[in-house]
Amino acid sequence: MFKAMGSPCELRLVGDDPSLLQDASRWAQDETRRFERKYSRFKEDSLVGRINARAGLSDALDLDEEAMALFGYADQCYRVSEGAFDVTSGCLRRVWFAGRKTLPPQEELQTMLKLVDWPAVEWARGEARLPVKGMEIDFGGIVKEYAADALIEGLKRRGVTSALVNLGGDIRCAGEHPDGGAWPIGVQHPFESGPIATLLLTDKAIASSGGYERYLEIEGRRYSHIIDPRTGWPVDALAAVSVVSDQAVVSGSLATIAIVLGERGLEFLSASGATWFAVDRTGKTFGTHI
Amino acid sequence: MSFQSKSRLLLVMLVLGFVSACQTVAPWEREILAKDEMAWTEDPLAQALDQQVYFSKEGASGGLGSAGGGCGCN
Amino acid sequence: MDRSAKREHHGAPQDLGRALVALTTAAMALPAFSVNQPTETSVALRSSVYQEDPIKNGDETILFGSADRYKIKINQFYLERPVGSDWALNLNYSNEAMSGASPWGASVDSVGDQQVIMSGASIDDSRNKLEGSLTKYSDNAAWSLSVGGSREHDYRSNYAGIRWINEFFQKNTTLTLDASYARDTLNPTDAVLYGRVVKASKQSRSLALSVSQILSRKQIVQMGYGLTKRAGFLSDPYKLRDVRPDNRIEHRLTAGYLHYVEAAASRVRAEYRYYWDSYDLEAHTVEFSILTPFLDRWEIEPGIRRYQQSSASFFTLGDLYDRPLSLPQSSDFRLSAFGALSTKLAINYKRDALKVGLQYERYRSKPSWGLSGQDSHVALLGYELLSLGIQLKF
Domain boundaries in chain A? Predict the structure, then answer.
C-alpha cells in the first residue's frame, strides 16, 4: 500500500519468486510517481502544470507520444459524450470549491463556463496551448485509470501475471487471486459504508464515478463534486456508476460520462456494450447482471 | 497497348494515386479501420477455401505468401 | 464559439453503441497498449460442397469415360488463441473429400474439334491438411513461424514458413515479408499398371513482400509482389500424355483496396492480381465485393470475380503422341487460354461474438474470355458452390 495521486493506492502481486515481485513492486511504485510528476495539475513543473501556467500566452509546449495519445483519448471522450466529458472543466472547481456555503450566482457560472472549451484547445499538431487565460487542463479523470492499465501491462511484461492494482478506487486485475480463481472486487455503496455488490473479475478493470465521500453541503442540500461541463451545475440523477471493461481507462471514462449524462446515462451504458452498475439518488440500482 | 505496357501504366497510376492520397490517421481516429470488415483477412477459412478451389481449377495460383499446402493437382 | 448551441444539447449521444469501441480504439493508442496481440480466442468452422458441371454435349465430345465431374466436400477448422501477453497460437485443419471423373487426355479430330478422354470409374479421394503457427508480438512488429502438412493416399506435402510484419508511421504503414519452403512427394496409384512414374518429388520456394497503407479514416490500400520457384516433377502423372518442364518460376503482383462508406455502413472491396510465369502463362484476376447491412443483425455481400489467362507455351489441344517425350506438352485445360466469371452472394448473421455465414458461388469459364488464342477446350469448368461458416470469439 502506498500513497500517490492524492489517494491511497494498493498493489498486490502474486507469484513464487520474491525478488522478482520486489523488483516489480518497486518499478510499479516508481511508475505511479512518474505519472504523478508528469500529469498532476497541482505540480507547477509537471507537463500539465506548465501548460496551465501558459494559458493565454502564445508559446506552446511539446507533447511526447504518451501525452499526444492522452490528448487524443480525451478528444475521443469529448466526442463520444458530445461534450459531457471535458478535461477543461476543472476550472469549475473554483466556483464549486470545498467549503462554499452559498449557491453561485448564474453570472459567476457563465463567466467560468467560457473557460470550459475543449475544442478550443490546440494540441493536434504535437504542441499544446490553451488560448484563453484562466483555462486549465485536468487529466485527473484519465491518468489515474491509465496508470492502472500501464502498471498491469508493465507487470505482465516483467513476468508478474497475477496482480491487482488499485489506484484510489480504480482497479485493474490480472490472472488469479492468490487463493485461486477470480479477484473479488467490492463495489462501494454510494450512501452507506461497505460494498453494495462484490464482483468476481479475471483480467478486467473496474472504475467508478460518484460516491459519497466528496460532496458539498450548501443550504441544507448535498451537491455532488462532479460538475456537468455543459451547464456548470453538479450532477444529480445518479449517485454512483461503476463500469467493468478490459481497460481501466475506458471503464473510467464511461463511468464519468454516464454520471454526467444523468438519467440518459443509463441508456448510454446499456448501449455501450460494457458491463456496468449504477445507483441513482434514491438508492435504486441498475446494471447488467454478472 | 500491349499487356506489358498496360500493366505498367496501371502500376504507375496506382503508386501515384497512393502517394498523393495519404493522410496520417492518428491511432485514436481509427474506429472505422478497426472494424472486422476493414481487415484484409476478415474470414481466414473463406479465404483459404477460395484459394484452394481456384488453384485446382486455374493455371495461376496464390495470392501472396506460402509456397506450401500443395495438393496432388499439378 | 456559440455557447448557447452547445448548452442546449442535453440529449443522449447518437450512435451510443460506438462508445465502447471508440474509446477502446483510442485507448489502444496509449503506449501501454501498443502490442497487437489478439485480445480474444477465435474459433471458426466451415463446411462447403461444390459440384462441377458435367462435360457439355457428352455424346460428341467424350471419346470415352464419364461425363460427370468432381463433387467435392470440404470441412475446415480454425483456432486462434492469445498466449501470455505477447504470443498467439494458430491452428488450421481441413479435410477435402472428392469423387468423380477428371480428364485423362484429349485428341483433336480431322475437323479440328477436341474430344476428351475422361477417367472411367469414379475417383474417390480425400486430403487432410494441418497447419500450426506461433506468433510473437512486440510494439510495432511481429514474427511468425508456421509449419504444416497435407496428406492424400498418393500425395504428401510438408511445408514451413516465416513471416515478419513491421508497422511504421504510427501504424499507418504495414510491411509484411514472407518466406516459405515446401517439399511434396508423389506416389501415383496403379503406377506400374498404367506406366506412370512410381515416385517423384518436387520442391517449392517462395518469397513475398507486401505493403498495406492507410489512406484515410475509411480507406486502406495494399500492394504486393511474390515470387515462387518450383523444381522437380511438375507434370500430371494421371494424364495420358503430360510432360512439363522441371522448373517453374512464378510471379505475382497484387493490389487491394478497402473503402468504408459511412452513410451506408457498407464496405467496398476490390482486388487485382497479375500473374506470369516461365510457362508463358499470364493471368489477370479482378475481384470486387460490397458488404452491406440489412435488417438488424444481418449482412449481405454480393461479389464478382473475373479471371483471364493465356495458354502455356507447351499447351496442345490434342495429345501429340509423335512428339518426343523430352519436349514439354500437355492438354490440361488448366494450361489453355480461357477466362472465368464467378458471381457470389454471401449472407451473414452477427450477434455479439457469433457470426454465421452462408455463401453461394457460380463459376463459369469460356475459351473466348481467354487472353490469347481460341483453344476451345472441352473440359473447361463450371461449378456451383455452397458454403456455411461459423465464427466465434471469446
Answer: 42-138
- What pLDDT is attached to residue C16? 52
Angle formed by the axes of helices A65-80 and A248-261, nearest 10°? 30
**With respect to CATH, is domain A42-138 assigned 2.40.50.140?**
no
pLDDT digits (tens, 9 = 90+) for C232-290: 998 888 888 888 999 999 999 999 999 999 899 999 999 999 999 999 999 999 999 99
- Whole-number Å distance between alpha carbons of C280 and C278: 5
Residue C312 near residue C281 (C-beta atoms within 8 A) = yes
DSSP E strands in A71-214: the ranges are 127-128, 162-167, 170-174, 183-188, 195-201, 205-210
Show residues of chain A in contact with C19, CB under 8 Å: 80-81, 254, 257, 268, 271-273
pLDDT value at A257 more than 80:
yes
- Distance (Å) of CA A151 to CA A157, A195, A243, C193, C392: 10, 25, 19, 71, 31
3-state DSSP: chain C helix, strand, coil percent, rounded to 5? 10, 60, 30
Strand partners, A260: none
CB-nearest to C76 from B14, B40, B49 is B49
Using DSSP's 3-state secondary structure scheme, residue C163 falls into: strand
For testing the chain A interface, which of B24, B25, B28, B29 should be mutated: the one with the most A CBs within 10 Å?
B28
Which numeric CATH code is attached to C40-393?
2.40.160
Residue C64 pLDDT greater than 60, yes or no: yes
Contact of A245 with A281, CB cutoff 8 Å: no
What CA dihedral angle connects C91, C154, C329 and C379, to 10 degrees?
A: -80
Selected residue with higher pLDDT from C188 and C32: C188
Which pLDDT score is estimated for C35?
59
Contact A130/A121 with Cβ under 8 angstroms? Answer: yes
Quote the pLDDT of residue C11: 36
Q: Which residues does A134 contact at the CB level (< 8 Å), separation at least 6?
A: A55, A56, A91, A115
Interface contact C29-A254, CB threshold 8 A: no
ipTM of the complex: 0.85
Residue A130: half-sphere exposure toward Cβ, Cα within 13 Å: 27
CB contact under 8 A, B43 and C48: no
The DSSP symbol for A120 reads G
List, for residues A219-243, the tens digit of each pLDDT value. Answer: 888 888 888 999 888 888 888 888 9
State the number of CA atoms in the 13 A half-sphere of C77 facing the CB. Answer: 8
Q: Considering only CA atoms, which of A24, A17, A62 is closest in space to residue A165?
A: A24
Distance, in angstroms, between C144 CA and closest chain A CA? Answer: 20
Q: What is the 3-state secondary structure (H, E, C) of C255-305?
A: EEEEEEEHHHCEEEEEEEEEEEECCCCEEEEEEEEEEEEECCCEEEEEEEE
Residue spans of the domains in chain C: they are 40-393
> Closest to A247 (Cβ–Cβ): which among C11, C12, C24?
C24
Statement: residue A159 has pLDDT above 60: yes
CB B46 within 8 A of CB C357: yes
Q: What is the pLDDT of residues C97-149, one digit of tens each?
A: 988 877 878 777 777 777 777 776 666 788 999 999 999 988 789 999 999 99
Q: What are phi and psi of A110, to 5 degrees?
A: -60, -45
C27 to chain A, any CB pair closer than 8 A? The answer is: yes
